Predict the structure.
Amino acid sequence: MLSRRPVILITGANGEMGHGLIHQLAKEGQYDLLAIDIKELDESLIPLTAARIVGDILDQRLLERLVSEFEIHTIFHLAALLSTRSEFSPETAHEVNVKGTLNLLKLAVEQSRWHGKKVKFLFPSSIAIYGLPDLATKRQAGRVKENEWNLPTTMYGCNKLYCEQLGRYYARHYRQLAEVDDKKGVDFRSIRFPGLVSAFTVPSGGTSDYAPEMIHAAAKGEAYSSFVRPDSRISFMAMPDAITALMQLRNADPSRLTSHVYNIAAFNPSAEEFATLVRGAFPKADISWNPDLRRQGIVDSWPEDVDDTLARRDFDFMPAYDLKRAFEEYLLPNIRQRYLRS
Ligand code: SER
């Protein structure tokens, strides 16, 4: 029989998380990596991947072709339209974020049947699944737990929340009325990420983008006008910690996992506190405040912090970078070097 190549599949490979993740997985070197993105993969990632596909996860034929060639054991399904971008075309966002995820879950179930082992399905969810009605409630709510305030105000948040549920369904209840009890579902594991800050890439289309944009602009010597008020506060973390957390969750012993979905976070400065750090590092930084009331409304609906007790208990989540260390040891040295070179 024709043998298929065992791979880890990464969708949205060209995005911010894709970059960090591919570097980490390539370092591990356990499996070949198959990268899918709507755009040509970044040159720096090409040598790290065994195969690359430029295409749309909504393209059924592409997905079918893929399973004829590759044996997939783990999927990191990162492809999505982020929160700000999704508000400009909510129906398209729904299509990509929900239908895309459904397609991948279906592919995962089929693959599990083929090779007789549950495919691990790692899904980045988001603080966008929370929705606080006003600032007073947000302040009062403080660190929210996974099951609180699940009332997103964005299409992206709705999509992520629903896809968490789809994941749970595929993991536990898929085809529950079928005559033959097929227990080969999907091993679905999801993290609700806070805003992420990377030294190597800048996000596009998100609503937590003000923090990374501020620091990258200062390093480039460009002025930055923040689209949120100085007092805006949500949780963040440095990209390496986000990648480590995904790896820890992937590697976790299933008997320890008590949930399909976990909060994580590392620090939660206000935008002003973030700007003070940026100004400290780049004394010429020109940061001004010009809040966009609509994007501000989205940030105001996200919690000022999340309770990540479950992640710490179930898969030993422990961020290596607090805010100070993230700045001094990760962001500043790497960002300075990056813009020196270009
Ligand atoms: N960082 C994302 C966004 O702003 C949230 O997951 O859309």
